[in-house]
Design goal:
By secondary structure, the protein is an alpha+beta fold. The chain is built from 3 helices and 5 strands.
């Protein structure tokens, strides 16, 4: 996912870890929806697909990696919904 982390965000903002610590959230557009790579999963889940998609990336205090995976969506609207659902009731979007 390192190539995803290098992409410019199409939407970014802040969320509040534990309700008090300000952390970053960003949504990036990519051309590949990555599969699980697990042979036991159905092909539509296991394999990569060439399609426009949006990845949610966020940070948390005291984590060894700069960006954590918040999931993927096929539209920006869905990605915003998923980010807000995962990160809590208040996400303050900058764009």
């Amino acid at each position: 996912m390192n190539d995803v982390d290098q992409l410019s965000p199409v939407k970014q903002g802040l969320w509040f870890y534990g309700g008090v610590t300000t952390c970053h959230v960003r949504i990036v557009r990519h051309h590949t929806l990555f599969g699980t790579g697990n042979a036991d999963d159905p092909p539509e889940l296991a394999t990569d697909h060439a399609v426009e998609c949006f990845y949610i990336r966020f940070d948390k205090p005291h984590t060894p990696v700069p960006w954590l995976d918040g999931g993927a969506a096929l539209s920006l609207r869905e990605a915003v919904f998923l980010a807000e659902r995962r990160l809590g009731p208040v996400v303050s979007w900058a764009d």
